[in-house]
Amino acid sequence: xxxxxxxxxxxxxxxxxxxxxxxxxxxxxxxxxxxxxxxxxxxxxxxxxxxxxxxxxxxxxxxxxxxxxxxxxxxxxxxxxxxxxxxxxxxxxxxxxxxxxxxxxxxxxxxxxxxxxxxxxxxxxxxxxxxxxxxxxxxxxxxxxxxxxxxxxxxxxxxxxxxxxxxxxxxxxxxxxxxxxxxxxxxxxxxxxxxxxxxxxxxxxxxxxxxxxxxxxxxxxxxxxxxxxxxxxxxxxxxxxxxxxxxxxxxxxxxxxxxxxxxxxxxxxxxxxxxxxxxxxxxxxxxxxxxxxxxxxxxxxxxxxxxxxxxxxxxxxxxxxxxxxxxxxxxxxxxxx
Length: 337
Hints:
The protein is α/β, with parallel strands linked by helices and 337 residues long. The chain has 2 domains: 6-136, Response regulator (Rossmann fold, 3-Layer(aba) Sandwich); 141-259 and 293-322, Response regulator (Rossmann fold, 3-Layer(aba) Sandwich), CATH 3.40.50.2300. 37% of the residues lie in helices and 17% in strands. A 6-stranded mixed β-sheet has the order 7-6-8-9-10-11, with helices on both faces. A 5-stranded parallel β-sheet has the order 2-1-3-4-5, sandwiched between helices. Helix 5 links the parallel strand 3 and strand 4. The model is unreliable at 1-27 (pLDDT under 50).
């Protein structure tokens, strides 16, 4: 994800070009058996946790033969619109990326290419005036909630440190869900919450985590890289986010909330292939009942987590999938409490 800009929080006005296209939806129906040409545009390396989920899902679709896939990484916000245009001009059917920092500029580009499908990470909703733009976000609050249950049970001090990148909706909702899960196990648990103002600054995340440990935290929520390193060095535990890092921290990372992008991109690919792609919010595909998120296996912590927490995780997982239990989506900024 990219650095926040003022544009991101401004109201997006419908462009005249977009309004003119609203009456007729474009058609992308492809010849039978022809792979969908997909381009990914990312502001960070594909190894970064959030972006890696999108990239790996695209690679899996390519391996199946459903798509032809290429990508650009480390694309700056200022260069992002140009790269979008380049792929659109070169005949790509579907362009996938994240426009959090260039919302207005990106939507202006999208309006210029009504016969190209765009699936973009965004904090804003789809626009009826842009029928070729669908949006998504990592709504993995279900898995985050479950990871909070584990954290609440494993913290002996009742003090959890939480280090995030920016206090924006896609981070806030995961933190709130995590905190709600932890409180199920310990209603009196305390949280230290801090944001480092960067999507990738492991040293800063690490220093922030050190301070929380000094202030009594024996469990850390590692929304950013660097936090689990601090936990490992100081002998406390951590909970991962988006990807499973337990293999790198076998005695530190107890559990992780995993994001699975396959459900999201596969739905878009099918609609492009069938000529049915239109403006939609793909956020629902990140929900647990859609296969978009899960709690990572306990691995090295199997048998070390209190049984009451394991039982509650199993119970809530079944209820979330059946619809009997709903994890609240709270996009407001979380505070230390």
